[in-house]
TrEMBL record:
It comes from the Bacteria. This is Histidine phosphatase family protein. Signal peptide: none annotated. SUPFAM superfamilies: Phosphoglycerate mutase-like. Gene3D superfamilies: Phosphoglycerate mutase-like (3.40.50.1240). It comes from Paenibacillus solisilvae. InterPro entries: His_Pase_superF_clade-1 (IPR013078), His_PPase_superfam (IPR029033), PGM_Phosphatase (IPR050275).
Length: 189
């Protein structure tokens, strides 16, 4: 019995210092959400879940609305903090920290969260969803780091290079046989 998990990375959102949880989508991001909703239109969806962050919820809202489903949010699926929210870090430094965090899962920039810590809070949610909705279809609003961290728990080939290749938005279908990841397919562009 196959369970499908559609991991949908949020659409484009401008960074706003101090607004990590609440920042919304750009105009381009809103247009991309319409495309995501259209791609998912022909797919049966049993449950929609998300990170509690606004941009992730907004990206899957149309999918839920078209089916009359509530979006269930899970704190364990929130985006990983790379640095302290109060700390401004140059982009190249932030990218170097993300890269190192995938080769050293216990590394964190001061004030940030390690890959291991993020996985330890997200994976119980994933395992519970796979158990509760076995044989069904789950749509999940997520973030680039969390998408990569979750996939990395099943296959180490999903690393910094993979993270760099993802787009905003992005859609990956994960096929599970029980709790075993049996296949991954990218559906976005």
């Amino acid at each position: 019995m196959t369970t499908q998990l559609f991991m949908i990375r949020h659409a484009e959102s401008l960074y706003v210092s101090g607004a990590e949880r609440t920042r919304g989508l750009t105009e381009q991001g809103q247009e991309a959400v319409r495309q995501v909703t259209a791609i998912m239109n022909e797919i049966r969806v049993d449950v929609v879940v998300s990170s509690p962050f606004g941009r992730a919820i907004m990206t899957v809202q149309g999918i839920a609305d078209e089916r009359g489903l509530e979006i269930l949010t899970f704190e364990g699926l929130r985006e990983r903090l790379i640095t302290s929210p109060e700390q401004e870090v140059p982009n190249e430094e932030r990218l170097a920290a993300i890269k190192r965090s995938f080769s050293d899962p216990d590394f964190a920039y001061p004030g940030g969260e390690t890959t291991r810590q993020a996985a330890e809070r997200a994976m119980p949610v994933i395992k519970d969803l796979l158990e509760q909705y076995r044989g069904q279809t789950i749509v999940m609003g997520t973030h680039g780091n969390m998408l990569t961290i979750i996939l990395n728990q099943y296959d180490k080939a999903y690393d910094f290079t993979f993270w760099e290749s993802t787009t905003m938005p992005d859609i990956y279908r994960l096929d599970f046989q029980g709790n075993v990841l049996a296949g991954v397919e990218r559906l976005w562009k």
